[in-house]
Write a structure and sequence with these properties.
Residues 45-103, 132-163 form the SAM domain. Residues 205-241 are annotated as: Disordered. InterPro entries: LIPB1/2_SAM_2nd, Liprin, SAM, SAM/pointed_sf. There is one protein chain. By secondary structure, this protein is an all-alpha fold. Among the domains are: 10-103, Orthogonal Bundle (DNA polymerase, domain 1), CATH 1.10.150; 126-212, DNA polymerase, domain 1 (Orthogonal Bundle). It is 49% helix and 0% strand. The protein is built from 15 helices and no strands. The protein has helices spanning 3-10, 15-28, 42-51, 58-64, 68-72, 76-81, 87-102, 126-129, 134-143, 147-150, 160-165, 171-177, 185-199, 201-212, 231-234. The relative contact order is 0.14.
Length: 261
Amino acid sequence: TSGSDLEIKLGIKHVLHRKKLVLALNAKAESESDDLAGRLDHHWVVRWLDDVGLPQYKDTFLEARIDGRVLNFLTVEDLFHLKITNMLHHLSLRRGIQVLRGSKFEPGCIKRRADPGDDKDRYSSPTEVTLWSNHRVMEWLRHIDLAEYASNLRGSGVHGALIVFEPKFNAELMASLLSIPVNKSFLRRHLTLHFRNLVGRERMSEKREAQEGNNALLTPTAKVKTQKKTQFTLARRKKSKHELDLDDLICPLDDGEDEEE
């Protein structure tokens, strides 16, 4: 059954409700071990938005009933439908989904707080940091004496996987999101030093390359532009009833294949 069939026969108007049903029907043909994302219901996904630092979209996601399967196959077009256009937020969702895939959609994979027995002066490995929630990142900021600015990360979309995996995310962007004044150069240098230690040498090298490349710098307010469909995309073959368009996924299926630490 295709999305258009569901709209006609069942009167399901919301595009993501239709997508959810199509994915659920497709999952029926899979084994449980292949449908790991199916373990996460829409209530879990709404709570997960807190983890990735995007609680402002909770009502939108709740209305769309986005569960683990839909989250896994969210497209850029879906996000536009949800009126999410901030580029940093798109990247936040992308890297958050990447971590869920890497953790086989284990519901408890995100680390929300430091463990009581953790040595607070021990540097976490980048692999550990990728599992940090937005709250855990704020906890780290308090530990490195930036408590005054930590709460500014609420609603920013910053979490561990974005910090580590996203080449365009650097210390300068983090300083901007934290609203550390440009004239407070000592504090910005302090953040940069700790940021480097957190991310690790290999990732820092990738971030420098991204900065030196032709890619436009990421800013807190940058918007994602809608892609105009070319003649080629319009002429593409039609998808079969059970086939999903995987060309436009917010988190491409090959994301993470070369991200192992």
